[in-house]
Each structure stands twice: as structure tokens, then as C-alpha cells.
Amino acid sequence: MSVRGGNVSLIRAVDRISGIAPDTSLNSAAAPKRQALMTIRGLRKTFDDAVVYDDFGVDLPLGQFVSVFGPNGCGKSTLINMISGLMPMDAGEVLYDGQRISETRISYVFQNYREALFPWLRAIDNIYYPLKVMGVSRKEQRLRVEKLLTDFDVRIDLNVYPYTLSGGQQQTVSILRALVTEPEVLFLDEPFSALDYEMTLFMREQLQKIFMKTKTTMLLVSHDLEEAIQLADKVVMLTRRPTKVAEIVDVNLPWPRNLDVTTGEDFMALKRHCLDRFWQEVKR
Ligand SMILES: Nc1ncnc2c1ncn2[C@@H]1O[C@H](COP(=O)(O)OP(=O)(O)OP(=O)(O)O)[C@@H](O)[C@H]1O
Ligand SMILES: [Mg+2]
Question: What is this structure's pTM?
Fold first, then answer.
């Protein structure tokens, strides 16, 4: 589902969709390359008496795939709900390369695809929906959706209602709907956890393809360590509550992360390292 910011981001989104070149004058080729960051500072969140986050902070790279992994109930969903603007923070600030969330184009893929898709709309109309809401012209809508379906080689019959599709197909439609607005950041909260193993493996491949093609910043919450490592440039390991960053693990493995990679020695060593860190936290 696409979550829209204020007018500025709407204009930027429409400009991008209509193919109008953005003003890059501040970004000339001569300018030194710098890593754009998502910066989270002083984040606090409590539910009744439970302190989930207190003065939480982290810098995360934009343009990369970041996984968030941590103990049950440590606040993974709360974190991405807050930094995507879906849930208010008690205190704190989140900036995307200096911009507030309201000025950043984001999309969100929910775990429960059955409730996320509009059941009264055909799959294809679910994908068109965010563009209609944005007021994009019909011609542009068609161009955008056709390009998206071609880019991702979608082989599903989209002229049907969501309930007739398999779980994986429905989640693919959710992801396509999230991508059609060309988000700057895509949030995914355990998007494959309701799918069977075969479909999960397939969807991991699909998501990798999308990432490699678009280099959209992805922030994935996963309770599956293998998945968290396989898909990520960085794995953010969280502690128990009140939750802090236990460690940020760099995943310097080649893309695509195919079976050779995920069964290789380097992958296994990373998994072992993350598991050790995880158990330290859980037993603390
Ligand atoms: N709306 C809410 N009202 C009250 N407590 C909440 C609410 N949302 C989350 N919590 C509590 O905050 C803590 C963190 O919840 P959250 O769902 O973010 O954890 P999580 O790491 O995503 O958990 P899981 O591994 O089960 O997905 C939990 O103790 C949860 O019970
Ligand atoms: Mg959760």
C-alpha cells in the first residue's frame, strides 16, 4: 500500500511519473559522492507501562537493503510503523537524507496480504489504485503499469479478483501496488511469513530481482534469520526491550543471493555470527 506524504512529495511523485526530469542542479557530477542516510534520533515509544524504545538512534544507508532482526516482541513492527509514519512516536526524529517522512515517497507491504488488497477490485485495479489516488492521467497510469509489469515479467492473470489468486500471487500484487508509485523507501513487515516454504523461496528471488533492478531502499522486518541475511546489505540486530541496536552486520556477499551463495561458507559464517549475537540477547 502506498502511503503518501504532503504536497511536496505528491508533486515530486507526479513529476517522476510524468517523466519530468527532477532538478539535479545541487547534485552535479562534480559533487563528491556521499552516502545518503536515514537518521533516527531520540526515538521513544511506550505502550502503557512498557518502554519499547527509549532514546533509540541509528543511521541506515538509503539505496540499500536493510533487514531488521530481533527477539519476539522487541518492537520490530513498532519501529518500521513509526519510521514509516504509520504510528506516532512519543519522541524522536526520523529524517530521510534530511527530509521528513511527509516529504518522502514511501510504500509499505503488510504481512497480511489477504487484508491488504482491496477485495472488490481486480488485481490489476489494485495496482492502478495508488496512481488514481494521486490523480495521474489515465495515459500515464497505463504507461506506468505496463512498464512495471514488463520490468518484472509478471505472468499472473491480473484480471481476476484477489481471492482467486494464491498467497504468493496476492503478495506479488501487493508488492507491485507498492512499487507503482516508485517509492523512495519500501517497508516490508514479514511479507512472506504467511506463505509456504516453496512460495517464500520464490518470493525472496522476486524481491531480490526488484531490488537489483530498482535499488529502492528496502527495510524488511523478518523473523527468519536466513531470509534477513540473504536479502540484505545490512542486518540490524535488535536487543530485548527497551530496545537498542545490538549490532549492525554487513552482508558483503555477491548478488544475486542464489543457492550457491546461501549455502556457501561466507553465508554460513555470517549466520553463525548473527545467531550467536541473537542468543546472547535472548538469554540476557
Ligand atoms: N498497539 C499496541 N498496544 C499495546 N502494546 C503494543 C501495541 N503494539 C505493540 N505493542 C507491544 O509492544 C511490543 C513490541 O511489539 P511489536 O509488535 O513491535 O514487536 P515485534 O518485534 O514486531 O514482535 P513479533 O516478533 O511478534 O512480530 C510488544 O510487547 C507488544 O505487545
Ligand atoms: Mg512484528
Answer: 0.87
